[in-house]
What does this fold into?
Amino acid sequence: MAGVKTFADETTLGEWLRAQSPVSVQAIGQITLEFIQWVMAKATPGRWLHNGQREVFFDDTELEVSGKTFEKARVNYEGKLALSWQVLWVGPFLAAQSLGGHAEPSGELLPLLEAARSLWKDQSAYFYADSASSAVKYLEPIAAEGWQWSVSYNKWTTALERQAQQWPEKEWTDKTVLEWKNGEKLEEQYTWIKHQPESASAPILFAVVRSKGEKELFWRYSFVACDRARAGSPKAVFQRHHLKGHKEQLFSEVLSGLDLHHPPCAELLANQMYYAVAALAYNLLVALKLLHLPDERQQCRVKTLIREVMILPGRFVSHARKVVARIYVAPEWLEWWRMAYQQMTPTANVSG
It folds into this structure.
């Protein structure tokens, strides 16, 4: 049915992965970027933009490996052997990625920004990252992209906390009282602080929130570094930055959906090609959802798409001296399957 006489087995796939080169891995990455641009041009903007903006998110995760033969694997903070997978997302797309023994959790941020810049250049965009990207060597290039941005900042907060503690009351917003755990009340106030970290060429703007429970004597402070031109209110910065949590769930989506928790090969280059192909496969599934599924199906997870669209029970039967494939589709997906298959094969006779 697919026009492929035989599919490769695990041995053949392993040989193919080990035969790759850095150039071929880069080529798959370029194909992925071109495919994403094609989907962006065709998809309904409201399905992947947030308030008309392209959301860009960077994060890394550690892929644990077993045995001492995995090339470039490093001992992580938990004392386990792992490879670092650093990923740049643009909207729902896995736009660029790097797998290796990276010493820093944001070590590949700048190369990935360079690789994927065509996906947001000259467009309205918002960038999120966690505190691993809060060093000046990352913040200044992030700011130079010309987008709105916010980065968690909790590593070098001594000077900021000292300044916040000395900040006059008039510089803080009115107190907001929230319901906290066990019904306890939580007070919050927000303000701006400008601070020039060591080695920074100019002051950086920080949104600050201080909070205190009913039984607490001292304020607790949180900081988010953000853009200076379009920041809005400090509370709005925190509210927007909290959307980063949804972006972090994308890692769980791709790792669980495509079973990518453990690299399959001992050689680093083979694993890099494996994850490059996996990124392309993930984006194909995202494209299927954005371009072909109705609005009520836009929240489908990758596992659901694979189960209900790709892995379907079926059998071959003989009918009128022909071999007929009967595929068993859930009733709620039947009409979609009719339309999709007729688009893929205009001459197909699809019945159900």
